[in-house]
Amino acid sequence: MRSLPLAAALLSTVALASPALASPALASPAQADPGQARLLVADPAASTVHVLDARTGRITGSLPGRKLNDHAGTVVLADGRVLFVDDAAKQLVVVNVAGAEPRVVGTAPVEGEVSHFAVDAAARFAVVAGSEGHEHESGHAEHAGHATLTAVDLRTFKSGHGVVHSGEPGVLVDGGTVLHRNDAPAQLESYRLTDVVKANGEHLTGAVKQAIGEHGHGEAFSPKHRRAITATERGVDLTEVTRDGGFGAQRVAAWGGPGRGFYLRLHDDADTAVTYVRDNADPDWTKWTEHAYLLDVRSGKTTRTPLGSGYVFRFGLSDELAGYVVHGAARDELALVDVNGRNGGFGELTRRVDLGVLPGGPQAGKDPFAAQTRKIALDDRGRTAYLTAGGQGRVDVVDTAAGRVSRSLAVPTTLDRGGAIAIWEPGVAHADTVGR
User: Fold this and answer.
1) CA gap 421, 64 in Å, rounded
2) Any residues with CB less than 8 A from the CB of 277 and at least 6 apart, and which?
């Protein structure tokens, strides 16, 4: 069995790359109470990452020169560490946001154009997937080539990497097993974590393989049910992963109508996968239809809930609610969907919150992907949603029960294109450890 202890024991015998530790100066930290929830708000266009006290809105510190890769996103760990990839430095960065000011606790070099990364459930290792180039909106075959999997020990920040054949690589980590989602050909591949570390930049061999649907993009792993969950053209592939890194039974949950999903997250109950399905057949984006899509990982049962017409880009997830920002032709709305499964309202649209018009936001007749947008994070109970206002240098705070914006938090950079946002709360651990 490829257990984490075995991987750790083998890793200790391998010559690894030297760690790159850094503690850059923080820009004008304000006083804040340690132990309070923190918001990590990144502005990649300004190469800056800010950390705010979520209760007061005060900036506890900023990390200048850090260009967060918003495609790979962040992983938030229970102890206050937040992981992200710095595109400028080509590093995996780990910053502790829990104290009175943020502190970079370690970095490690990464290879290629990073698209995804994941952390194992024990928060011991991170694996970063980088490619020669990626673009999930077009056909996968034209991007077939080489990709690099970089494994980082999160205690020592030593790393090692191996090369695989892939288009845009997806990655999951299960103890001592690395799962690579390959879109050219469409399959899951299983590698030993120790083999990734010891590859010394050479091609990885000996993969266990399992075919999946075409054009895979968006994945999660449920250790509870031992399922790799992959969004593909045909639906969501649910693939059993054995504890020794093999593959077992597989089933496919259909999308249940026109369109498909890409961005997929695992609920903290580890029973439910959440995404949204967009039907963009109409050339007019204001007529695209958007649906919340909830999947029972155990049974394969799905729930599809209309969100309205317009443009949705990613979403926020809490124990109680999923929050989708729907950019419409006339105004923006926050659509809140029940995801707790305990009160009989599972999958229901509980509330719409009017967000008004975002200056520079998506406009009819223009490409919505090039416009300003809003990014979102929800606190664990779903009581508060935090939404960036792209181009406006602020974070809007929504009281989800009252259904209104209660206040706004100022950020010293514009947050072009919405930037990125994540929340850390004391005592909260997440089942999903894939970068979002």
Assistant:
1) 16
2) 255, 256, 257, 259, 260, 261, 290, 291, 293, 304
For the whole prediction, is pTM greater than 0.85? yes
Average pLDDT, whole number, for the chain? 91
Average pLDDT of the segment spanning 398-424: 98
- The whole-angstrom separation of Cα 246 and Cα 223 is 14
H helix or E strand, kind and range, residue 43: strand 38-43
C-alpha torsion 40→46→48→52, nearest 10: -40
Cis amide linkage into residue 185, ω under 30° from 0: yes
CA-closest candidate to residue 11, choices 120, 90, 105, 106: 120
Predicted confidence band of residue 32 (pLDDT cuts 50, 70, 90): low
Question: Degrees (nearest 5) of the Cα angle 341, 342, 348?
Answer: 50
**What's residue 31's pLDDT?**
52
Using left for φ > 0, alpha for ψ between -120 and 50, and beta otherwise, residue 200 falls in left
By the 8 A CB rule, do 269 and 430 touch? Answer: no
| pLDDT tens-digit readout, 314-363 | 999 999 999 999 999 889 999 999 999 777 899 999 999 999 999 999 99
Query: Residue 326 has which token pair?
Result: 């729907």
Question: Residue 176 and residue 178: Cα distance in Å, rounded?
Answer: 7
Give the residue ranges of DSSP H helices in 35-169: none
Polymer length of the chain? 436
More confident residue, 401 or 138: 401
β pairing state of 384-389 and 125-131: unpaired
In this structure, what DSSP letter does residue 195 have? H
What one-character DSSP code corresponds to residue 20?
A: B
Q: Is the pLDDT of residue 24 over 80?
A: no
In the numeric block, which tokens belong to residue 390? 């792209």
